[in-house]
Amino acid sequence: MGLSKQTFEDMNQQQEQIIPVPEQEPTPREILIEKIRKKQLRLSFSSLKSFTSPKEFLEYKLKKFKASPDMIFGSLCHVLILQPHLFDEKFVVVSKGPSTDNQIAFAADYLSGLPIEEAYSNNYKTGSHTKIYEELKDYFAAVQSGKEIITNEVYDKAKKLTDYLISTPLFLKYLEVLSDVEVEVKWVANGWYFLGYIDGQITGLKFDLKYTKNANPDAFERDIVKMKYYMQAGMYDDATPGTLDKYVIIAFDAKGNFCDIVIDRSFIEYGKREYKYLLSMLEKCAAEDRWEESYNFFDHSQRTLFKPKYLKGFATDPDGIE
């Protein structure tokens, strides 16, 4: 007896239902969120500071890091001041790097693996690649070394600045008694794993060296608050319990100005409370899957902006109005 039409259709439907659906590979964002949920992501001061909103935190962790010229210059000065013997290991000096938009784009295309002729034709309408390649061949070799690239001009500027700084009484006061520099610290807080580096330490004292645009202490005090350096002090105090009597930030700028500022113990303790609060909020965000939220994640009620008292009134205002 043949199968009925209904039976045949039912069998086909069952076969369709059991056809395996290929699983999609998780996206980098999904992988990151899962690592956060399981506390498998190692954190640092920089990453936790970026948690101004769930959206900002994910973007910070997912973006490809590219150091700015100021960051490279600050890192170069750090090495020249604290670890000059590691300069050749970390940096390579070239006479010239790509400077124009066309040169930058040509170099990026060539270094990405394109044939040199194709990289050139992508960015220039006429001429040959020979001249531009000769100008940049030292730069290409430097890129392949994997080290940070700086020009002679940048190196000379940093060397002149740091030679001056390390000769000043303030810098000598710290550098002459240093026991360790660039100290790696690892610790666990609330189940999260952390990694950091303390620029320098002496018995009972730790200091952080900061390159800034303006080392005037009145201006840099505001930077300490804005950049949350007090929280970094609290985190490193947590990483080295019982060993920190004083935490000092030494700030310097490109003009050769400098200052040293001690972070008060009360401010260090505040920094500890803040980073523990951020960890609890990160856990909350992961548990409730609130990654699509922005600054409203921390602002639980709508803000109202009132007129600041310092704004002046007007001659036409009625009496008594504010």
From TrEMBL:
Residues 13-23 have a biased composition (Low complexity). Residues 1-23 are annotated as: Disordered. Coiled coil: none annotated. Residues 1-12 have a biased composition (Polar residues). It holds the Pfam family DUF3799. InterPro entries: PDDEXK-like_dom_sf, Put_RecE_PDDEXK-like_dom. Residues 44-291 form the Putative exodeoxyribonuclease 8 PDDEXK-like domain. It comes from the Bacteria. This is Putative exodeoxyribonuclease 8 PDDEXK-like domain-containing protein. It comes from Flavobacterium caseinilyticum.
